[in-house]
Amino acid sequence: MFARSIFSSYYRLLTGAALALAVIALTGCNEKVAEKAAPGRPVLVATVHYEAETPERSFVGTIKPRIETDMGFRVPGKVAKRLVEVGQTVDVGQPLATLDEVDLKLQAEQAEAEFRAATGVLAQAAASEQRAKDLRAKGWTTDAQLDQSRAAADEARARLNRAERSVELTRNSLSYATLVADTRGVVTATLIDAGQVVASGQTAIRIARFAEKEAVVAIPETLVGRAKDGTASVTLWSEPNKQYVAKLREIAPAADPATRTYLAKFSLPGAGESVSLGMTATLTLSDPSTDRVAKLPLSALYSQGGNPSLYIVDDAGDVALKPVAVKAYESNSVVITGGVPEGAKVVALGVQKLDPAQKVRVVSSLSF
Length: 368
Prior knowledge:
CATH class of the largest domain: Mainly Beta
Oligomer: single chain
């Protein structure tokens, strides 16, 4: 009975030891599996994006013609017909409007009559002058009578010359009764109508020339220097994907008293027929001499007595230390000019405790 009790105790002891060993073995396996499946260290990353150090500035403007001419009659009169409408395209020499020609024709006829009369008077005076010369040569007249004949002939010649000019002027005035376009363009305004009496030089038709178009914008005083020295481009709201090269042609010498901006006109050499007058345009000003930089959190910079560097994270979770060129330090950020490629992901926090041989896991991205 006693031996049996001893055997039972020994059996329970062996069983407990075996169970303990099994538990220990299972625990070790679980730790190895857990250690093998343990994820990398979680990190926050920031994406590298290079852009101009001096940002581009955009302004809304309007497409206008470089030259817009106010056409008017060169003689006064009553408008007989207006031959064009607003928006109509006109060519060189095309009639725009006409005046009543009755009075102008009468003036032309009067000038021609004066010319014929002056021609007859000159013929008579010239004959008298010649007779006086012949008589004086024979001694049958005096020098005074010869001088008088010469003066009468000179006056007749001047009268004929004046009559010739009068005929030319009246003919020109008659031709001015038809207002014609002196350039190819589009009619932007009609300020007369049939039956209206107009004065000489009064604006009748306004024409915008097709020769060159420009974008007109208001520039703040802080960007006047960039407008003069920088690079400009224009896009249209109707064609947002097409860009036109713009060149500053004119800028106002004084600011507008109400808006404190300067009116600037940028010519568009490449603008074609698709660019219509009055379209809304976006003018973009940029500085060609500025560097392209990327701004990152200051905590992403790693430096322990050597060159400033950044930890780059790839898709597999590996990290690599890359030296960078620092342009400037700010209160919470660092500005770099190179060393890491565009779009690279860099560790933003905890770089001082990061091991390059350690795997990492991206848990979030910072916008900077």
